[in-house]
Structure formats: C-alpha cells, structure tokens
Specification:
This protein is α/β, with parallel strands linked by helices and 107 residues long. The protein is 21% helix and 34% strand.
C-alpha cells in the first residue's frame, strides 16, 4: 500500500488525514480505511488474489482482530471473491446490499 496515513491539506482552512490506502488488484481495486478503532476494507478482490490482499492488509498493520468491517460495493465475483475467506480469517463482519446476500461468493 503506497499511500498510508499521510497528513494532507484539502483546503487552506481544513486539514484532512489521509487514511485511505488503495490495494491494487489488477483491473479492480480494494480500499483500506484506517480509523481509531481499527480498519475497514472496501471490496475484497478476485478469488485468486487472496494471498496478495491478505499480505497488503498485514503490511498496513491490519492483523486479525483489527479489521472491523468488510464493505462490499457489489456482489460480483471480482469485488467479493475473497469476502468469505477474509471474514473468517479476520473474524469480522461483512456489509453487503440485501440484493447480493445470497450470492455464492459470500459463503
């Protein structure tokens, strides 16, 4: 993750903590948001990218127990392929649209 937790200025009067890291996974990306109480992962990538996304999470300091939520923007395999495995390994919750709840990729 290249852009980790840097302090930036959005406007002259407003400082913004940049707490969003991009996890590049080819033609899709995942995003890791760092907060005071832990991390939130947005999307989980393709099934064959489990090792890459898992390594990126750990490199950012997101160990099991620190990932508070996985948010799925869509239930398609390229966004949700690792959701079930990451949910288990990190013992976390998964947020997904009610229309995608019964899709195979959520286990």
């Amino acid at each position: 993750m290249e852009n980790r937790l840097e302090v930036t200025k959005k406007h002259e009067s407003t400082k913004m903590l940049k707490r969003i890291g991009i996890i590049e996974l080819g033609f899709v990306n995942a995003y890791l948001v760092a907060g005071k109480e832990g991390f939130v992962l947005i999307d989980a990538g393709l099934p064959q990218q489990y090792e890459k996304i898992n390594n990126e999470l750990k490199a950012a300091g997101c160990e099991p127990g620190k990932l508070r939520l996985i948010v799925m923007t869509r239930g398609d395999w390229d966004h949700a392929g690792n959701a079930s495995g990451l949910r288990e390994e990190y013992n976390t919750r998964l947020a997904v649209h009610s229309g995608d709840v019964n899709r195979d990729c959520f286990g």
